[in-house]
Amino acid sequence: MTGEIRLLLMSDTHVPARGRRVPEALWRAVDEADVVVHAGDWVGVELLDELAARARRLVGVYGNNDGPALRARLPEVARETLAGVRLAVVHETGAAAGRERRCAARYPDTDVLVFGHSHIPWDSVAPGGPRLLNPGSPTDRRRQPTHTWMTARIAGASLEDVRLHHLES
């Protein structure tokens, strides 16, 4: 892909186990995005089918709560180059302490690493390594005050306008 690209980043939807449905605001964001990224813990294959049918382009991975049906269709790590930005997606990155150092070592040829698992939004840059983004969860906020997801834009071979979106529960 070249030119400007609108990204939607989500993770940990847990539909239908913990999250009963994807919020309408997130479906609107899916419709507006050029690329939808899901960093695992879908739980039900039905959401994968629905997103694959609705998104212009879908990049996803499986998470620790995803069973054989999802693991058969999704990789553990996905890599894409979008308008010159090297993107990697994985579900788990380990503990918050030392995350930047670990991810820089594990993903040295990556500009942006999208991950999930914690349900806690995260935005940091590893020294000499990738920008790390966790969009939280749009359906299972756990200890967070709101449900969340992220949008961003790729333009001129760089990531721009990263925004964390909040939906009150």
From TrEMBL:
Entry annotated with the keyword Transmembrane helix: no
EC number: 3.1.4.-
Superkingdom of origin organism: Bacteria
Region (Disordered): 126-145
Keywords for this protein: Metal-binding
Requisite cofactors: a divalent metal cation
Enzyme class: hydrolase
Record Pfam families: Metallophos_2 (PF12850)
Keyword Metal-binding belongs to the record: yes
Domain Calcineurin-like phosphoesterase: from-to ranges: 6-153
SUPFAM superfamilies named among the record's database cross-references: Metallo-dependent phosphatases
InterPro entries on file: Calcineurin-like_PHP_lpxH (IPR024654), Metallo-depent_PP-like (IPR029052), Phosphodiesterase_MJ0936/Vps29 (IPR000979)
NCBIfam families for this protein: yfcE
Similarity remark: Belongs to the metallophosphoesterase superfamily. YfcE family.
Name used for this protein in its record: Phosphoesterase
Source species of the chain: Pseudonocardia eucalypti
